[in-house]
Amino acid sequence: MKELLINIEPMESRVAVLEDNVFEEFQVERRTPPHLLGNIYKGKVASIVPGIRAAFVDMGLGKNGFLYLTDIVELTPDVQEAVRLEGGSGRRGGGSSARIQDLVRVGQELLVQVIKEPLGTKGPRLTTHLTLPGRFLVLMPLDPTFGISKRIDEPKERERLRGIFKELQPPKDVGVIVRTVAAGATQKQLAGDLRFLLSLWKRVKGRSGRVGPLSLVHEEYDLPLRIVRDTLTEDYNKIIVDSKDIHRTLMRFLAQTEPNMRSRVELYKHETPLFEKRGLEREIEQIYNRKVELPSGGHVVIEQTESLVAIDVNSGKFTGRRNLEETAFVTNMEAAKEIPRQIRLRDLGGIIIQDFIDMDSQSHRQRVFNALQTAVKKDRAKTNLMFLSEFGLVEMTRQRVRRSLESVSFHECPSCQGRGIVRSPLTVSIGCLRKIKRAFQSSRKRVIEVTAHPDLAARLLNEDRSLIVTVERQYRGKVVVKTDPALHLENFQIQPV
Questions:
Q1: DSSP class of 31
Q2: Which CATH architecture describes the domain 290-409?
Q3: Which residues are within 8 A (CB) of 125 and not within 5 positions of it... i.e. 6 or more apart?
Q4: How far is residue 381 from each of residues 154, 236, 255, 308, 401, measured CA to CA in Å?
Q5: Which stretch of DSSP H or E encloses residue 302?
Q6: Which residues contact 280 (CB under 8 A, 6 or more apart)?
Q7: Helices 223-231 and 244-257, interaxial angle, to 10°?
Q8: What is the number of alpha carbons within 13 Å of residue 475 lying toward its C-beta?
Q9: Domain ranges of the chain
Q10: pLDDT recorded at residue 235
Q11: What is the pLDDT of residue 339?
């Protein structure tokens, strides 16, 4: 049984997917910063950098978007990977051999769409190949092409869909992509979706002509409607939502697209919050933990760094019944099923290195990798896996189009600046004593006042008091230690008085 749970709060929306009561997917969207992915803007080229074959586009957001040459001349990587094109290539302007400065100029106005959210100091990634997703179709209003999702792999179904579109005869100047969820859809459903998207493009095109540069032309749906549009399939038994307004919106949307699914939408009315009632709040808190326990007693440690995500598998308390090989195999099999779930829940992306426990048996290695591959297939994001190396490492890449759950929910620690550690009182004390000596050497005054965090002050006045006395004798002076709880443990102030 598969359920979609939607929780609406004043500052955020949350969506959880449960499969046989197992928490499989989680998404959260905050009101601030605003969601940009999928939005269409009327921007203006701010600068061109031929060396990296890209242009920076001002959209009025305070941070310029990044437009690669390939995102001007070719369809987006997502489309190329997910769709088998059957008419038209979507290429423009001479292909990838063209020069960026020949295609755009500074000050030029462009219709651009965000295909990747801002990450860190980077602005949003943009494309000029606009897409308008519907329930069953994606309209490409500027790219006359036709394609069917590669996930629809049944030849008869692909042929049926081709036949429907020959009869529908969409305008020749637009492109249409058939989404995975369209498998089994009727001609009436597809025709209705096409009419809706053509009408939407007419409104977008009209607005783009009326507004000035640096303006939002089309805003993508919010999370609840977007998740229903993009992921809802027949295997969902229930959609439970705790907001009357969103419930009404979803019912209207499904009335236009899939009326038979409306009976599965429930409005949650209990006093106990929805996620709390289903035991999800505790599981959501666990998503933020570095350590994930495995059933046998082993565990997985997940560390996000600037360049990659490192995942380490440990046997922990589990010792097995026979030998080390069996212990490693059992723990690795559990980890191979749990790691992809954690990657989806945390929305981890980029390069992901998984360090499994070493196994001698090639058969065991193959079975662990097969289990990992099977679990990864549930992921809607594009992923690539490299086979288990002799060191037990699996290299994986996962499409990243938005910030991870951790980066959305946390900010850098003001105490350690993101390092996760601070200097010990002993280390800080040694540095403080050096600076006390330097202060005596550079000043004629014989009294040095040290203001420090209480932990450091206690160290100087107790364990390191003899060192203070030695310095006082050496320089024939006096060291006065004062405390200030407002100071960081690593910071102190030294003042000759």
A1: S
A2: 3-Layer(aba) Sandwich (3.40)
A3: 65, 66, 67, 68, 71, 114, 115, 116
A4: 21, 19, 28, 17, 9
A5: strand 299-304
A6: 5, 16, 23
A7: 30
A8: 23
A9: 2-31+227-281, 64-201, 290-409, 425-496
A10: 86
A11: 96
Question: What CATH number has the domain spanning 2-31+227-281?
Answer: 3.30.420.60
**Token pair in block for residue 329:** 């195999």
Closest of 397, 291, 379, 283 to residue 335, by C-alpha: 291
Burial class (CB in 10 A: 0-12, 13-18, 19+), 186: exposed
pLDDT recorded at residue 342: 94
**For residues 230 and 136, what is the distance between their CA atoms, to the nearest angstrom?**
9
Splitting the chain (497 residues) into consecutive groups of 10 residues, what average pLDDT does each group show?
Answer: 94 93 92 89 94 93 91 74 62 67 92 89 90 94 89 91 91 91 90 94 94 94 93 90 96 90 94 93 90 92 90 80 82 95 92 93 92 92 88 89 77 76 88 93 91 93 93 93 92 92
Instruction: Tell me how far apart the alpha carbons of residues 191 and 170 are, in angstroms, rounded to a whole number.
Output: 9
Nearest Cα residue to 350 out of 317, 395, 391: 395
Task: Give the distance from CA 421 to its chain's centroid.
Answer: 25
CA angle 155, 158, 162 (to 5 degrees): 135
- Round to whole Å and give the CA distance between 136 and 176: 10
Sheet strands side by side (includes 447-452): 478-483, 447-452, 492-496
Cis, peptide link before residue 496, omega less than 30° from 0? no
Note the pLDDT of residue 81.
63
Fold of 425-496: Hypothetical Protein Ychn; Chain: A, (3.40.1260)
Residue count of the chain: 497
Contact in structure between 311 and 355 (CB atoms under 8 Å): yes
Half-sphere exposure of 214 (CA within 13 A, CB side): 9
For the domain covering 64-201, report its CATH number.
Answer: 3.30.230
351, 307 Cβ separation under 8 angstroms: yes
Q: What is the pLDDT of residue 122?
A: 84
Query: Which pTM value belongs to this model?
Result: 0.82
Do 290-409 and 425-496 come out as alike in CATH topology? no
pLDDT of res. 320 = 60
Residue 216 phi, psi (nearest 5): -75, 125
What is the spatial distance between Cα 226 and Cα 15, in angstroms, rounded to a whole number? Answer: 11
